[in-house]
Design brief:
The complex is a heterodimer of chains A (416) and B (151). Chain A has 416 residues and is α/β, with parallel strands linked by helices. Helices cover 38% and strands 16% of the residues of chain A. Chain A folds into two domains: 254 residues, Aspartate Aminotransferase, domain 2, CATH 3.40.640; 109 residues, Aspartate Aminotransferase, domain 1 (Alpha-Beta Complex). The longest helix of chain A has 21 residues. Chain B has seven helices and three strands. Classes of the chains: A alpha/beta (416), B alpha+beta (151).
Chain lengths: 416, 151
């Protein structure tokens, strides 16, 4: 299953791994895909892994005693073991397959929050969270008469550490924070947050959706209690995600979704729960995507974190340089060297949606809107921003095409 | 033939965006409504002055957002003035898109039809009792209208 070893690579060479990048858009333009923070494209090995599952051994997992049942279970559990190693977890049973980050966080908010939150308790989030790490907490604190509090961000888009000190206390039961802002590109100091959580006895949940394809993920150093990510942002299939939870916490939690696979015994009026991880995997899993995610993780790991970092940092710096030369363009968040490969910006008198439509004409796919971070946009006092986000297969030439496309958009809109 | 999106931001749209028709407020409107496009946060307020004969004497809009949503609201105000409520009941999403004279993708139709949605709700509310058995306008407005074959 492991792809060929690739000691050195460049964006130009690995682009060949991604069939979609060679396709032309409906308007005949080559694709310049800069919407990687929304979702990443898929390499051929991942597509093949999913196809291989359906074509050669697909059946349901953990059920059939037939030959296909054994094979598919082996592949799925093999993927779980890869994910366990990838995030540095102690045991494969601490890896729960979900449909994505959103479901992973909903699972914790409901499964952990319903049991362990009480009236007056506090859940601490940040102003830069994605709605997926806000709305589930809003719902559970309302139910429990608990309170949701926000760690503010500084003018440069970093977490305000001084405020963090004053916000944590004996009432803090959960700190839920993103590793990397999907708008600002800010990389949060998970070490400091882990220490803060330990100091007040709170649990720490980390939303790693945005960072998982760009930097190493480790749940033991610094120690986190829960970690969530989605397959589709790490070159894997959509519809599959992961929740890591420490065993003793998962054991103590209530199940979130109930039904098949997650039970031990079902009687007419009550049931008992299955062992981990089945307890949190009710129903039939997205089997082929789960197997494809294992292949995607192999793919990323063989690229190497240092190499990924070097390529993406070069792209981000170049983008910073060429974008800041455009009149009226303002980037939000910290400097190029202190962020992930995400640049969100506004252009004076040019609405992000008009901008995104106009650069799309040049084949450039970017995102425009609030990026599922409405409270952050309130803090920024912006209704919407445009966002370019880079992945390993992007080139410096593509960054220049983006800049040209923005200049073109300004011209069309009679701004230059 | 592929759609040339530069055509989307043609003089017709950009003139309305830069110099909108009746942007502002009416002192005592007969009806007024504000709506937001949750996708991009565009906001449009539409105000109508309807005379006793049921004719729209004045239409004003106000708002903030992309060129398409704001130009479309301006074009809408220009179009509805002098029309009767009965005539406007027959005015459909397709007619609104035709007024814009540019091809809109499904995702941008939400912008182009934001003012139109307000108009339909305001007109619907003029005769709620007559419309009791008909479908509320908002039920029918979420489906994109195919206009790629505009030519």
């Amino acid at each position: 299953m492991t792809a060929t070893l690739r000691p050195t690579w460049t964006a130009e060479t690995i682009r060949r791994d991604f069939p979609i990048l060679e396709k032309r858009l409906p308007n005949g333009q080559p694709l310049v895909y800069l919407d990687n923070a929304a979702t990443s494209q898929k390499p051929q090995v991942v597509i093949n892994a999913v196809r291989d599952c359906y074509e050669t051994y697909y059946s349901n997992v953990h059920r059939g005693v037939h030959q296909l049942g054994d094979r598919v279970t082996e592949e799925l559990e093999g993927s779980r073991a890869k994910i366990q190693k990838f995030v540095g977890a102690n045991e494969p049973e601490e890896i729960i397959f979900t449909s994505g980050t959103t479901m992973s966080i909903n699972l914790v908010a409901n499964g952990w929050g319903r049991r362990f939150l009480s009236e007056g308790d506090e859940v601490l989030v940040t102003e830069m969270e994605h709605h997926a790490n806000l709305v589930p907490w809003q719902q559970i604190v309302r139910e429990k008469n608990a309170r949701l509090r926000y760690i503010p961000i500084t003018a440069e888009g970093r977490l305000d550490k001084e405020q963090l000190e004053s916000l944590i206390g004996p009432r803090t039961k959960m700190i839920a924070v993103t590793t990397m802002s999907n708008v600002l590109g800010t990389i949060n100091d998970i070490h400091a947050l882990s220490e803060a959580a330990s100091s007040c006895g709170a649990r720490l949940l980390v939303d790693a959706a945005q960072s998982v394809a760009h930097m190493p993920t480790n749940v033991l150093s610094p120690r986190v209690d829960f970690l969530a990510f989605s397959g589709h942002k790490i070159y894997g299939p959509s519809g599959i995600g992961v929740l890591y939870g420490r065993r003793e916490l998962l054991e103590a939690m209530d199940p979130f979704l109930c039904g098949g696979n997650m039970i031990s015994e079902v009687h007419r009026d009550e049931s008992t729960w299955g062992e981990l991880p089945a307890k949190f995997e009710a129903g039939t899993l997205p089997i082929a995507p789960a197997i494809g995610l294992g292949t995607a993780i192999d793919y990323v790991q063989q690229l190497g974190w240092q190499e990924i970092h070097d390529v993406e940092t070069t792209l981000t710096r170049r983008a910073w340089d060429v974008l800041t030369e455009i009149p009226g363009l303002h980037i939000v968040g910290p400097p190029a060297d202190e962020r992930g490969s995400i640049i969100s910006f506004t252009v004076d008198r040019l609405h992000p949606h008009d901008l995104a439509t106009l650069v799309d004409q040049k084949g450039v796919a970017i995102r425009a809107g609030h990026h599922c971070t409405m409270p952050l946009h309130d803090v920024l006092q912006m209704i919407a921003t445009a966002r370019a986000s880079f992945a390993v297969y992007n080139t410096l030439e593509e960054v220049d095409i983006l800049a040209d496309a923005i200049r073109h958009a300004r011209k069309v809109m009679r701004l230059s | 033939m592929s759609t040339q999106l530069d055509d989307l931001y043609n003089d017709h749209i950009l003139d309305h965006f830069e110099c909108p028709y009746h942007k502002g407020a009416i002192d005592h409107p007969s009806c007024s409504r504000t709506e937001k496009n949750p996708l991009c946060g565009d906001v449009v307020t539409l105000q109508l002055q309807i005379n006793p004969e049921g004719k729209v004497e004045n239409a004003y809009f106000d708002g903030k957002g992309c060129a398409i949503s704001q130009a479309a609201a301006s074009i809408l105000c220009e179009h509805v003035e002098g029309k009767s409520v009965d005539e406007l009941e027959k005015f459909q999403a397709r007619d609104m898109l035709d007024l814009l004279k540019v091809p809109l993708t499904a995702s941008r139709q939400k912008c182009g039809l934001l003012g139109f949605r307000l108009l339909k709700t305001l007109i619907y509310e003029q005769h709620p009792e007559e419309n009791e058995h008909s479908v509320s306008p908002s039920d029918t407005l979420n489906t994109p209208v195919s206009n790629t074959d505009n030519e």
